[in-house]
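Pipeline run #58 for the internal structure catalog. This entry was flagged by the ingest filter as a single-chain record with no existing model, so it goes straight to prediction. Upstream metadata was stripped on purpose; only the residue string is passed forward. Reviewer on rotation: M.T. Logging verbosity set to normal.
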Amino acid sequence: MDRVGVVGVGRVGSFVAYYLRGRGYDLRLLDVSERVRDLAGKLGVEYRVVDALSINDLRTALSGVDVVVTAVPGSVGHEVVKNVVSLGYNVVDVSFFPEDPGDIDELARRNKVLAVLDCGIGPGLTNLLVGRAYEKLGGLTEYRIYIGGISEVYDPPFGVVLGFNPLDFIDEYRRPARYIENGEVRVVDPLSGPTGRVFIEGVGELEFFHTDGLRSLIRSFPNVRFAAEYTLRWPGHVEFMRGLKKLGLLSHERLGCGVYADECLASAIASAAARSGMRDMTVLRVDACKDTNCLVYTQVVKATSEWRAMERATGSFLSYVTIELLQGRVKMDHGVVYPEKLAYLSDDILSMYEKDGMPISEKYAVAGRE
């Protein structure tokens, strides 16, 4: 039986561990925290307490593993994935790190392994859907990605229940966002750029703002006229975050009390989420067109009694890609691979989402008509 090493057992990593174990896979769980001991005990699997930034420690901890899943914060994701690839393991990663993966691609090719990156929901599932639309429409001239995790009910001004690292959440509002307009790559500040409203079937009207989620899509589909990724929030959220930015709370600078502003805000957000008891939902819409012929994909994921919606949506895609790799259906050369290049697996993955109660609607449309 294949053994999967799961590096990082926070919310998403824990979901992956439960999902893969429930489907009969042998696991070894790795985390820097002692919390890994309890999770491993519940699942009846091996574990190691390890610092994944230490390649020597990781070498020992991964011995005997066939495939590695990395679900660590974006701030350390690049180095962790690089360490795993350096040790000669195929890896499926969700960390959304900001660094260029060129050195990882070179290492993966040299070691004859695959590094499947950005395997979350956005980027991740959204990339797969853009790739699917490209194949079905015979090309693309433009696409728009709308994706967001929001509270299940309208709860101004924040309206978000975090399902991932709070510092990664804050990065969405301060990392310059790339988009394509008139065939050229442009950059905009997320909170200073244009915003708008979009109607999501089953949810209602949400507001959106630019975020830097196109990433590999810019290179994979370079000849489009327009492309953008937008984060979705309940109306009123953007002005609230602009206010926090004006107060300096989104910056990594020390406040008068001696703590870093963004770390203080991240702690407050995490505490508020824990106290509220409110459920989240994840909302996705992808509009992809070739001239006037379009495909519109929509998905709304709700929380369950065990898992938040963001954990379900993100952890499921990470698990599905891992299963496809384990079962030998990822037919790619060695090196870095992104989800849009796995569009030939999209029937399988959409079927798995539907089977797990998170169906994705696919509808043909004409550009300019709802």
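catalog note: Residues 281 and 302 are 5 Å apart (CA to CA).
catalog note: DSSP finds twelve helices and 16 strands in the chain.
status: ready for reviewer M.T.
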